[in-house]
Design a protein that fits this description.
76% of the residues lie in helices and 0% in strands. By secondary structure, the chain is an all-alpha fold.
Length: 240
Amino acid sequence: MSHSAAIRAAYWRGFRHGLPFLLVIVPFGLLFGVAATKAGLDLAQVMGFSIMVIAGAAQFTALQLMGDHAPVILVLAASLAVNLRMAMYSASLTPHFGRAPTWQKALAAYFMVDQSFALAINEYETRPAMSRPEKLAYYAGACSPVCPNWYVATLAGALVGAQIPPEFALDFAVPITFLAMIGPALRTLAHVAAAAVSVIGALVLSFLPSGVGLMIAALAAMVTGAQVELWIARRKAVRQ
């Protein structure tokens, strides 16, 4: 197979692997469009949000805090905290993209989402002989069905949301979405402990203004999760 044919094959393989994620991306984007419209954002703001950020969890976090009239600095800090995992993703992909042109790495960073990273890192580990152009082509293919459809789904949700009468109040959309996102992720004791601390902390500190309690609860949850993981690691080391 020629080099150009290998690159094309890598792209379409990534595209095929990314297609199943439409089952998640489309409803999630629709829901964000509806929730953002109901929160008072106009169409340009909703689309600007999704196009500039492309991070569902961070967008819902920001939307929730904006609805609570939190200061801008808290909105930004909370959204950044939610998206800190992207820094770890970038570190994992650096050995694969390190010598690529800056514009290609910039595009890869812009389109990086959980799905594209998970597919790419798994593919690179499965096929260690892939060249850098093939890796970039696969990554582009994995992003192709995900990111554009996030924009389209957000637009559709925003247009639909504007037509939903106020009596059908969709204020519950954001918390329900977070429950759906968090539930499947509670796979270990550390995850469960972090979730429990965050819930209890948020409730106990709910009297604090502008989402400050939420930030404190999130920090406490992260510390708790890390400490539980260390405790589990020490127990395993002792047993061995």
